[in-house]
Amino acid sequence: MTSPWSPAGDRPVRIGLIGLGSMGRNHLRILSSMAGVRLVAVADPDRDTLDRATAGSGAQGFAEPMALLAEADLDAVVIASPTTTHGALALAAIERGLATLVEKPLAATPEDAAALVDAARARGVPLQVGHVERFNPAVLELGRLLHEGGWLSSVYAITSRRAGPFPARIRDVGVTVDLATHDVDILSWIAGERPVRVVAETAQRIHADHEDLLFGLMSFPSGTVAMLDVDWLTPAKRRQLAVVGEEGMFELDYLTQRLTFTRASDMTNPRLIGGYAPTFAGDEVELPVSNEEPLAVELDAFLAVVRAGGRPVVDGEDGRWAVVLAHALLTAAREQRTVELVSA
Q: Do 62 and 72 meet the contact criterion of CB atoms below 8 Å apart?
């Protein structure tokens, strides 16, 4: 049944959670402790996991997520189920008039992602996508310095590395759709525009069905070039970003939330490495960042929209573009060619 959507206002927000995997349990932990929120229902097919969640939160448990959407009295829902289920579940939530937060990626395919964006727009339902790195305090500060502070008058290049061990829980998609969607979203946001073409290489070493390594290049209309290095093969988790521009270079570590800026070097005064190798090192400063849990910041932003309306910080169109870019990278790698993109 299709229902209209209206903001929840000041009353406690009644929210449901679908999926109790790794990210779902983090959502459960935070939602259960948030003021002004009532976790009404949770859904997961694993009975033991569901029983633990309901015992700890007091929420009603559902083995079937569609039953949760049909029966629970909700204002909003968080969907943290496997990627291939996002399309059907989010569409059902939107049709019920529920403000919807879908863990990234928004959907497994560009077609499913577009269908969700269209449905949310037609019904006036807020649709937010869980690109949690956009809420990392170091990323927020980097964005402020770039977009408001004008620290770089032009961005020459952006390099992103997202690597770590293989997560056995991910079976339905490869590293590009699962992980690189973070990076294509962040890189486009930093550049302030969407890319016009991409090239890529992928490899499959451990995953039984999908690629577990991606090297990608994205070219933007302004001339900015971005490189992605994403894999499930590295024995230690790495989450790093570098932004190089006319006045210097930002370096960011997502995990430690450390942000530095190295000023462009003085080319008239070389420094010698080992007494003979000249370099021109710029001065590096560490920038203050207020450490917070990005997922908690993301959920605060979502709940603000549920209560008052407005456009989510990362909306369905942002999520759709991340899926489009991920599939463009896969096409470029599979067909060994440059893929041109048309903004639509």
A: yes
